[in-house]
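Re: Re: ligand-bound prediction request (bumping)

Still looking for help on this. To restate: I need the protein modeled with zinc ion bound, output as structure tokens. Inputs repeated here so nobody has to scroll up.
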Amino acid sequence: MSRPTLIRRVVLTALLCASTSLRAQQIAITFDDLPLHEDLPPNETRLQVAQQILSTIQREHLPPIYGFINAVDMEDDPGLINVLNAWRAAGQPLGNHTYTHIGLNKQTPAQFEADIQKNEPTLISLAGNSDWHYLRYPYLWEGETLDKRHAVRTWLAAHNYKIAQVTMNFDDYLWNAPYARCSEQHNQAAIASLEKSYLAAADRGIQIARETSQTLYRRDISYVLLLHIGAFDARIFPQLVQLFRARGFTFVSLEQAQKDPAYAHDPNQPLLHGGPLQHQEYAARHLTYPALNNPTRQLEAACKTK
Ligand SMILES: [Zn+2]
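Reply:
Sorry for the wait, this slipped through. Here it is.
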């Protein structure tokens, strides 16, 4: 190859790489329900689930990942603090998911705010210099009336909290209980089928997030993904990371993702059931939000009989 041709190729490759990285969709991963979520397979511990996730974060060189905690779980089993200790020891930040995980739509704003505050001593004891002032609403319920929504948002702002929004979600939690049952039965074929349907659901979640963002913002926003600290989530996490890479995503921190202007806008929409930010924006515009079409019935039935 002649030298000018070689230079042209190098320049062209550099330009292509630059435009690809500019175009690449960004995503921040988050985990809810620390220290425990859903059933465990036999002989697996909560700490092992956390360590599996943490080692994937390290191996894949992912940016910091928030774990949102419910300190009520330590009332029955104080030893579960080891999950939160492991999260922090790995350099990962923690955020507030309320003490009891009771949704705002089942409480008054005052009760909900007290529930947020009851979680704080645990966060303060573990946070060090990290910023724990993020609230992830349980069930993504931000209030079934505008009065409640406004009251809690005002309180959060006055107490220096940011809302940890969700802009990508595929009900990942549905796979954890079937996985525990199938593991107990050593049913490898059923577990392989769970992996397949989980990754298909994740792909559908990606599709919905991107499609609805195109409708609302005419572009990809920096997304925030909701996952849960379940045994199946931990098992399949490396494959999920690969799926995002294959779909052209790069990983960023929650702080970085929420710098996207999409997060500054309040849809100002009461919802009986919660949903990702785009879902709230769709409701405010009377648009029909696309369905995930998860195989809920098959998951409920999986490995129920031997
Ligand atoms: Zn939760």
